[in-house]
Write the structure tokens for this entry.
Amino acid sequence: MRKIAIINLKGGVGKTTCTVNIAFALAAKEKRILLIDLDPQANLSLSLFAAGEKTAYDLLINETHVSECLFKYNDFVDIIPSKDLDKAELAMAGLPNRENILKKALEPVFNYDFVFIDCPPSNSLLNYNALLYANEAFVPVSTDYLGITGLRKVIEMVESVKKAFGHPISITGVIPTMFDQRSKACKESLAEINKGFNGEVLSEIRVNSTLKEVPKKGVSIFEYDKSSRGAKDYMKIAEEILDSRFQYF
Ligand SMILES: Nc1ncnc2c1ncn2[C@@H]1O[C@H](COP(=O)(O)OP(=O)(O)OP(=O)(O)O)[C@@H](O)[C@H]1O
Ligand SMILES: [Mg+2]
């Protein structure tokens, strides 16, 4: 089971879009997926109409068993929806071993091929919890002038978590997002990303207006328009993830 945090401290770079569409591309290949919405903004939950009696709040704060917090989206995808995670984070701050609350709560989880965590855009306790559960981080990076600075910050954060907690985690994929072939800034930024990251840079996700329309439909791009650029780009990434030359955990 691969445990992957999708993280960048920079906002609006495509974290949630990557989480949803990589997950559903893998589900189309019959992989079993658990999606965890760890962002107080709840964008992933809102865009998949995922809600339930019990949520990530209950998992983290009320010690509710993880099996009760699952929203069953379809045969291949389960979701732990986000609700009141800003309040959860405040409550967690006073708890012992506060950085490992998610890891402990997810101990009973083993029957998925992939667990993906959609992380908030902040240097927060929720993100430390995500990184201390995961063994891998995927970093969506916007292909613009400031994208590379966001990538450097995440590399620093992951390294500091690794050192401070002795936790095995690596950035196993950087995903260039919002790529526009006609833009000089995008091409320069992509070159910078390739130069600045000494690891696997997955294929770029092109700018695609269909990706902007999908969240209000409650489905992934594959159910909405599988011939769109967005669907093709995310399917290619899923294939790269499965074909990865590297074996992780
Ligand atoms: N390839 C793309 N082309 C066009 N629009 C995109 C693309 N990817 C994402 N978007 C849009 O950009 C916006 C930000 O994307 P998204 O919500 O995935 O970013 P995020 O990093 O999760 O943001 P936040 O930091 O707020 O959680 C959304 O409106 C989304 O629909
Ligand atoms: Mg998001």
Q: What stands out?
A: The longest helix spans residues 147-165. The first strand starts at residue 2 and ends at 6. The radius of gyration is 17 Å. The pocket of adenosine-5'-triphosphate (ligand 1) is lined by residues 11-17, 39, 41, 43, 121, 177-178, 205, 207-208, 211-212, 215 (CB under 6 Å).
